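Run Glycine receptor subunit alpha-3 through structure prediction, thanks.
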Amino acid sequence: MANDIETCDTEKVLLRLDRILETLSESKGSNQPEGFPKAKDRKVFCDVRCSVISVGEIDTVTQQFEADVFVSFKYFEGKQNKIAANNSEHDGLWDPRVNFLNAVTIQEKERRNDTNVFGKGTIYRYLSLRMNGTFKTPMKLQNFPCDFQVMTIKVSSSWPIDKLQFRRRTNKYGKISDNINIDAFTGCNEWDLQEHVVTEVKQPDLTKDKKVYSTYLIKLHAQRKPLFYVWNVVLPVFCILALSFTSFVIDAENPSDRLSVTVTMLLTAVAFKSAVSSMLPKIPYLTLLDKYVLCNFILQCLMVAQNAVAALCAKENKCPHFDLWSIIVLAFIAIVVNVGFIIAGIILFIKAKRDLGLLTRKYKDERACLDPTHLPHHVNIQENFPPESNKVEDAVRSMV
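Sure, done. The structure for Glycine receptor subunit alpha-3 is below.
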């Protein structure tokens, strides 16, 4: 009987030793070298969180904008002893190899590596970057100056998508913690920067090396304030067109005097068209402001043609009412064109404001649970945040 008890105790001791050895081997295996992940079937999911600290000038001509951005990357590394994980150095850790695809110039202000250990040695690594740079972004200018622009920061990795894939970081309630500081915006005289950040994972495209890479998009929206262009372009062009009608006060039998007024106004309109073109990049389509200036330019060309025809009619005593009716028709067209463009501009401006308002409301809804006033009474605010959130917030505050 005693022998059976000793045999049972021995088996229990051996079983415990085997478990200890397995734990030690897992701990060693979790210290991934620089080339991590080693396993061919191992894929790293990198959760991304962004904080836009400030936005600088938005240049329409060069289609660029300046931004100071904090981006945090969270990824699961493995399991190991909790004490060993906390004491491990960050120098030899695996690097997500993050790069900004559309950065023209970029300066890395700060780089930080953090570690969080959950439960029984579950390790999450954090790479936090604060970058200040100038980013290239294509602008859609069809509705200029009643437009809004989407300014995109493209984040990618040198690892192919079968090794690393970006994801949007959310808490356990599916809420985001991305944010933007609109108070530090320096282009507020021309733009209205929206208080939301739109993030998404772009559908990857096949590259020249026949590999696919994950791309994460950080989108900012800004609506242009059109009053500068109304007072400095639209109103002067309208006044030039209105002054062109003063040529009809001169008798039709004196075409040289008439033409001197209309041609002078026409050349002034051409100068304004050149001024409008200098405000825009070289684009293969007409903006709303281009169409307005061009329509007024065509009306002035019609006035020049009318002056010539009216002079011929007066010289040969034909169509005595041509001058009067042509003035009425041209004035009616001018009123319709100008009123039509004013209504179109107002509609486009209101529509853009409404669309951006919908995005802002959606963004606030996605962040709702981050505000304690939006939480149900039975929900503990500390439980709403994942354990790493406080660390990331502290990192942002220390960097700013």
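The longest strand covers residues 44-59.
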